[in-house]
Design brief:
It contains eight helices and eight strands; from the N terminus they run E-H-E-H-E-H-E-H-H-E-H-E-H-E-E-H. The protein is an alpha/beta fold and 243 residues long. The chain has one domain: TIM Barrel (Alpha-Beta Barrel). The chain has an eight-stranded parallel β-barrel with strand order 1-2-3-4-5-6-7-8, surrounded by five helices. The longest helix is centred in the middle third of the chain and has 15 residues. The structure holds phosphoenolpyruvate. The site of phosphoenolpyruvate has 15 residues, from strand 8.
């Protein structure tokens, strides 16, 4: 079973459009769709679409208190969210850093929320040893004082190099780099699920389908049901289904 996370970002504008989006998603064999809607729709969507797994796009690392505009891990868990995306590049663009992401990971894991942790180089790095150094640096900061073995089923690592996210429009990651990334984590005995995000389109997903990935994180294309369904159908019909 592959996980496909639909990250809606700050879309859509109305609840009725959120319902419409989900109603237009088709169900595919061997594909489990998880959705991160804007928090304002989370509870109502959760109550309406009981079979879908919902999560949040972000949390604050404190449990409660004087943090205007923020929402904690416990709050989203209390309304039924099962997971949270942490360290998304669009959060980092707004000034968040890896130390903050580390605290968020710890606060989510403490209450058994699944953390989908984004990791990846900001700018394109072509030299492989430099690339691995960058991945190591991020890994060490993100998972400082986190027991990766004990929490292996509560952590999903999303390879999302910033430069490849559609928002910044610089293209998608070559297949072999995604493969190196997977091997890099496995060589470090990281056993968590690994997914790939960074401009996944119906036109390029085939590049990644035979890699030992556990799924995909899809942003812009999850807002276009026709394209999203096509992506899911290509995943369903790809030969290798589990690794
Ligand atoms: C994302 O939001 O995590 C993402 C991968 O976006 P996009 O698919 O639009 O590049």
């Amino acid at each position: 079973m592959k996980i496909v996370i639909a990250n809606w970002k700050m879309n859509p504008l109305k609840f009725s459009d959120a319902e419409k989006l989900i109603n237009n998603y088709q169900i595919f064999k061997n594909v489990k769709v998880w959705i991160t809607p804007p928090n304002i729709f989370l509870l109502s969507l959760k109550n309406k679409f009981k079979k879908i797994i919902f999560g949040a796009q972000n949390i604050h690392f404190e449990e409660k208190g004087a943090y205007t505009g923020e929402i904690s891990a416990k709050m989203i868990k209390n309304i039924g969210a099962r997971f949270v995306i942490i360290n998304h590049s669009e959060r980092r663009k707004m000034g968040e850093n890896l130390e903050m992401a580390n605290k968020k990971i710890i606060s989510a894991l403490e209450i058994n929320l699944i953390t989908v942790v984004c990791l990846g180089e900001e700018k394109r790095i072509k030299n492989l040893s430099q690339l691995k150094n960058e991945w190591s640096k991020q890994l060490n900061l993100l998972f400082k004082e986190v027991n990766l073995i004990k929490n292996k089923n509560r952590i999903i690592i999303a390879y999302e190099p910033t430069w490849a996210i559609s928002t910044y429009g610089q293209g998608s990651v070559p297949r072999e780099i995604v493969y190196y990334f997977i091997n890099f984590l496995r060589e470090k005995n990281i056993q968590s699920k690994i997914i790939y995000g960074g401009s996944v389109f119906k036109e390029n997903i085939e590049n990644y389908l035979d890699l030992p990935l556990d799924g995909f994180l899809i942003g812009s294309q999850s807002l276009i049901p026709k394209n999203f369904n096509r992506i899911c159908s290509l995943i369903t019909s790809s030969k290798k289904q589990s690794f």
